[in-house]
Amino acid sequence: MNLPAVNDIVARHAGQRGATVAILQEIQEEFHYLPRPALEQIATELAIPLGHLYRVATFYKAFSLEPRGKHLIQVCLGTACHVRGSLRNLEMLQSNLAIQPGETTRDGLFTLEKAYCLGGCALGPLVVIGGKYYS
Q1: Counting runs of H as helices and runs of E as strands, what totals does the chain give?
Q2: Are residues 84 and 41 in the same domain?
């Protein structure tokens, strides 16, 4: 299966050393996850083993091999956020979206995830929606 979006993304990075992570980030943004056909196509076009792409994709938490919603919601449960009530944020989101962490709403719009540090401890409790931080 040839995915035109994958061709375009790989072509934009032609000749760049170490572009694998950047390519995977763009694929993730395009499809909201890393579909196997896209990984296979990247492996073929870059002449690298498919296993290498899977190692990179599973090493970084930002990547998902399962479909995610259009909007990723991450609730920080790290120590600073936890002591400031982040569990209440998680419970409210679970209730309003009718999903558990790791699940996606039926309409495919939202995926809810737990995180254990989002790097904004002084702002906690934090929720990140689509890359935007909310305190």
Answers
A1: 6, 4
A2: no
Q: Which long-range contacts (CB under 8 A, 24 or more apart) does 46-54 make?
A: 46/10, 46/20, 48/20, 52/20, 53/20, 53/24
- For 118, what's the count of Cα atoms within 13 Å in the CB-facing half-sphere? 25
Predicted confidence band of residue 24 (pLDDT cuts 50, 70, 90): very high
Within a domain: 65: no
Dihedral sign computed on CA atoms, order 108, 110, 114, 118 = positive
Give a yes or no: residue 28 inside a domain: yes
Task: Give a yes or no: residue 76 inside a domain.
Answer: yes
How much is the pTM?
0.76
Check whether residue 79 and residue 101 sit in a common domain: yes
